[in-house]
Amino acid sequence: MRRIISVLVENAPGALSRVVGLFSQRGYNIESLTVAPTEDQTLSRLTLTTLGDDHKIEQITKHLNKLIDVVKLVDLTEGAHIERELMLIKVKASGAQRAEVKRCVDIFRGQIVDVTSTLYTIQITGASDKLDAFLEAVGDASIIEVVRTGVCGISRGEKVLSL
Amino acid sequence: MLIRALKDEGVEYVFGYPGGAALHIYDAIFRQKDVKHILVRHEQAATHAADGYARATGKVGTVLVTSGPGATNAITGIATAYMDSIPMVVISGQVMSHLIGEDAFQETDMIGISRPVVKHSFLIKHPSEIPEVVKKAYYIAATGRPGPVVIDVPKDMTHPANLFAYEYPEKVKLRSYTPATRGHAGQIKKAVQLLLAAKRPVIYAGGGVVQGNASGLLRDLVNMLNLPCTNTLMGLGAYPGTDQRFIGMLGMHGTYEANMAMHHSDVILAVGARCDDRVTNAISKFCPNAKIIHIDIDPASISKTVVADVPIVGSVESVLTDMIALIKESTEKPDAEANATWWKQINEWRERHGIYHQTRYDTTSNLIKPQDVIKAVWEVTKGDAYVTSDVGQHQMFAAQYYLFDKPRRWINSGGLGTMGFGLPAAMGVQFADRNATVVCVTGEGSIQMCIQELSCCTQYHLPVKIICLNNQALGMVRQWQDMQYAGRYAESLYEDSLPDFVKLAEAYGHVGMRVTKKEDLKAKLAECFALKDRLVFMDIMVDQSEHVYPMQIAQQSMRDMFVSKTERV
């Protein structure tokens, strides 16, 4: 099962490599990873998605917690949560295709952020499966370049991940 | 500043080897007397010696090496300590901070290269941080589940021109590190109920009991409920080896009775053990009828391999104290009849194939049997020596036949299985207790992996007794080749290239002795141990074809074993 784990780590050199190293060392898989400092400059927040059954995820969270640089973590998929990913995509857009792509972007509530005579650069945000659906709708043949940020997430309601 | 911090931390010995990037530190060592430096002959030995010192005393071992090759040579020893949860601080020199990343002379990314085998690591960014980092390093190494911590020190950080107000912190607090102490009261209650209701309980105790200084409590608990107790390779000595309630080591080369008892039990109390693959055999077939209570200070060790029915995270000492108190209060009493039946069964197993009561090897042979050597060493040392070992058949024979009555006496590389560990570890133990009898049980293969330390033993007058079970082959490798590769001895034989160990020992200024006849064994050993102030290298020519039994059959349950070359149960 796909899980989203949010981790507060010390904003210190080497902290990220410890987290990433743990995954490769123990044979766990990282599907996506995002990281940036938080409003508290001493902390970074890292969101990673991984695949695994309950047993594996339990081990992952236990081992993450053992890292001295990890301050706190939460498995967002355990409760209601919001997940978002941002994608920038360049697609062919010429002739009749141009209008078709534009319609598709509107349907997915994306934005065209750059234009040339032959292509559009589109920005689109949403859960990962929405981005996947957009890619499918546009079709492989039209896609020139894709970049995705990886998932970031936050829990719904009163629940917070902070010190 | 660094050495002053070590002194304030109470460090007595530093095991190390100098080099360019560490020279400011070495100069500081030269100019003081409180922290004693021990010069080894290879950095791997420095880590093993610090490791042996830590295992024997329970204190943190300290290592000092230079950058580059000094640091990489230390890695094997750091990994060894990591696998066995040994508290250790390794200070490595580093090239000057402005040169880091430029492939400078003797530069290596020590933080990166050691990352998977340390509990934590620090890179000194400013000289003023040194005291606090040292304090943190020792705190992290010693608390919770202990482990090695690396401090990487760029050369400019220790330049004597860097003068700062020095203050050694009394305490450190890390917001992200709060090791568990007390176990969950509800879980402990559940565990006690389960244990009291058990008909066929077994206590399975590991290195955590030794590390957590909880041997006395374990003994109390076992005696209170008259439970059979088995120890892991790392746990030997946690429960007295000569006691009737001790059923031997368990696992791949565990006793028949221990493995049978585990397999047939209904409640297993795992204490400070991690259900490692050399213990459990196939997880899917592991102890099918047992409920598992698992006490460990490291939550990640619980339900990692074997899923625990009652997990308890906490220090072994505090959890066992709570359990004993609850049992004393409890109105429920264990079923005495079931207990008697269970012991009757265990004693039957003991009679049938028990390692200490029935002969499982040919005692009529004219050749020296390695098992007999260990038994004789046990007799001559009155079972009270510190025994370090290397890795292989001799290690298993020592584990099986030297009955340890006290914790911290059996010192071996259990998790990583590091050949070359024995001699340097014995040096560390000898420094910890200069008057103790320290025995290094080794083989002609392992001893050659750190044999250069015979020179270190000369320098510091370390009267270690080296018992080399010389079977002229990599015995354990050959045993597997016998059992699984139809006797094709791929690279496990030396083809007459072994050195004359007696002459070699003499070349280093020690005493060498060779035993080739069975009838000489006891007298020679007596002679060896009578030389209290000399290192003696005993080269004992043992039966080359001997195997270690019992041996569990791979991918089967705990009870599936070969008990001899011909008998499978």
What's the short story on this structure?
The complex is a heterodimer of chains A (163) and B (569). By secondary structure, chain A is of the alpha+beta class. Chain A has 4 helices and 9 strands; from the N terminus they run βαββαββαββαββ.
What this model shows, in words?
The complex is a heterodimer of chains A (163) and B (569). Chain A is built from 4 helices and 9 strands, in the order E-H-E-E-H-E-E-H-E-E-H-E-E. Chain A is α+β, with helices and mostly antiparallel strands and 163 residues long. In chain A, the strands form 2 sheets. In chain A, strands 5, 6, 7, 8 and 9 form a 5-stranded antiparallel β-sheet that branches. Chain A has a 4-stranded antiparallel β-sheet with strand order 2-3-1-4, with helices on one face. In chain A, strand 2 (32-37) and strand 3 (43-51) form a beta hairpin. Chain B has 569 residues and is α/β, with parallel strands linked by helices. A 6-stranded parallel β-sheet of chain B has the order 2-1-3-4-6-5, with helices on both faces. In chain B, strands 9-8-7-10-11-12 form a 6-stranded parallel β-sheet, with helices on both faces. In chain B, helix 14 (370-380) packs across helix 15 (393-401) and helix 14 (370-380) packs across helix 20 (521-530). Chain B is globular, with a radius of gyration of 24 Å. The model of chain B has no long low-confidence stretch (mean pLDDT 95). Chain A binds chain B through residues 10, 13-14, 17-18, 21, 25, 55, 58-59, 62-63, 65-66, 68-72, 163, and chain B through 111-112, 115-116, 119-121, 123, 140, 174-177, 298-300, 303-304, 307.
Features:
heterodimer; A: 163 residues; alpha+beta; five-stranded antiparallel beta sheet; four-stranded antiparallel beta sheet; 4 helices; B: 569 residues; alpha/beta; six-stranded parallel beta sheet; 20 helices; 16% strand; globular
